[in-house]
Amino acid sequence: MLWIILIVLFCSVSFLVYTLTPKLFTQTEDLAKKQTKRFFSRVDRVLQKEQVQTAYKLYVLGPIAGLIGGFFMGPEEYRLLAGIGGLVGGIILPRILVAQMIRKRKSRFNDQLMDALMIMSSSFRGGMSLIQAIEAVTEEMPDPIKYEFSLVIGENKMGVSLDETLGRLYKRLPSSGLQQMVTSILLARETGGNLPAIFSRIINSMREKKKIEQNMATLTVQGKIQAAVMTGLPILFVIAVQGSNPKYFDPMLHSDIGQKIVVFSVIWWLIGAFFIIKICTIKEY
Questions:
Q1: Are residues 201 and 238 in the same domain?
Q2: What is the pTM of this model?
Q3: Domain of 190: which CATH number?
Q4: Domain end among 183, 208, 233
Q5: What is the DSSP string of 145-214?
Q6: Do the beta carbons of residue 167 and residue 182 sit within 8 Å?
Q7: What value, to the nearest 5°, has the Cα angle with vertex 238 and ends 232 and 231?
Q8: Among 144, 146, 52, which residue's Cα sits nearest to residue 106?
Q9: CA-CA distance, 124 to 194, in Å (whole number)?
């Protein structure tokens, strides 16, 4: 009787595995496609082709490298946990690096936008059209604003309306200065207006905003230093104690309640670091 029950259970489990495995693979493949599509929709509209390829390599190779590195470089008794930690780090770190690449490109574009508006304003005073003014920017300015304005000109030459190309530019690199520029151009095309004077006011407002941002960055330096010290202090404390007395943490690491305390402490440390970073970060509205 026992053998019959075991055979029935084995057949049932085999049938479930046989029927569910294709669905799991299909769902995993669909999830991977969605993640890839989301990745390219976020990165491709901001970064250049070479940067997109670099970001994609980071996304693909980061988890693999983290898993292998954590597994083989971790202590023998904690290799599985070290591998899982490396995998998590390999997933999170590329996202941070790609976000930093996007932030850096947006910051460079915003810094160059003021000079681009000055060139366009001078071009308007010289009798040039809007397209000619944008071409003057692409001839005199470096990347990334040269690349972005070249896309605007290229799309316009292929038959896309200028309103739509400027809207796409703002979707790729949203900022208050670019929004004012695009809005003033669209309104001037519809109702007329003195674009050089409008651009001069936009430049003045951007200068004032940059001064305020610099003052805010100066005022938040102390908070950022405190955040770095408070976040790194537990790590430095563990390194210092471990260096002076390697067996000091053995009762905690080799007991169930000690390991739970360590996990609980690490979780709350991460939550605290997250909120400190959020408090010290000023968003642009």
A1: no
A2: 0.64
A3: 1.20.81
A4: 208
A5: HHHHHHHHHHHHHTT--HHHHHHHHHHHS--HHHHHHHHHHHHHHHH---HHHHHHHHHHHHHHHHHHHH
A6: yes
A7: 15
A8: 144
A9: 9
**Whole-Å CA distances, 51 to 90, 137, 205:** 19, 23, 32
Residue-range definition of the domain harbouring residue 150: 106-208
Q: Which amino acid is at 60?
A: V
Domains: count for the chain: 2
Each as own residue / partner, the long-range contacts of residues 37-44 (CB below 8 Å, 24 or more positions apart, any chain) are: 43/98, 43/102
Give the separation between CA 92 and CA 55, rounded to whole angstroms: 13
178 domain-assigned: yes
User: What is the tens place of the pLDDT at every residue in 133-179?
Assistant: 888 988 888 888 888 888 888 888 888 888 888 888 888 888 888 88
Other residues' Cβ atoms within 10 Å of the Cβ of residue 177? 19
Take residue 240 and report the two structure tokens written for it. Answer: 């210092």
Counting DSSP H helices and E strands in the chain, the numbers are 11, 0
**Burial classification of residue 158, based on how many CB atoms lie within 10 Å of its CB (0-12 exposed, 13-18 middle, 19 or more buried):** exposed
Give the number of other CB atoms < 10 A from CB of residue 251.
Answer: 10
Asked if residue 231 and residue 260 are part of one domain, the reply reads: yes
User: Poorest-confidence range of 9-18, 32-41, 202-211, 261-270?
Assistant: 9-18
Three-state DSSP state, 47: coil
Whole-number Å distance between alpha carbons of 181 and 170: 10
pLDDT of residue 17 exceeding 60:
no
Please tell me the distance from the alpha carbon of residue 28 to that of residue 164, in angstroms, as a whole number: 37
144 is written with which tokens? Answer: 């990334």
The type of residue at 207 is R
Q: Which two tokens stand for residue 109?
A: 């574009």
Q: What angle do CA 239, 240, 243 make, to 5 degrees?
A: 80
Closest CA to 61 of 34, 88, 26, 91: 91
Query: Closest by alpha carbon to 103, among 63, 165, 51, 41?
Result: 51
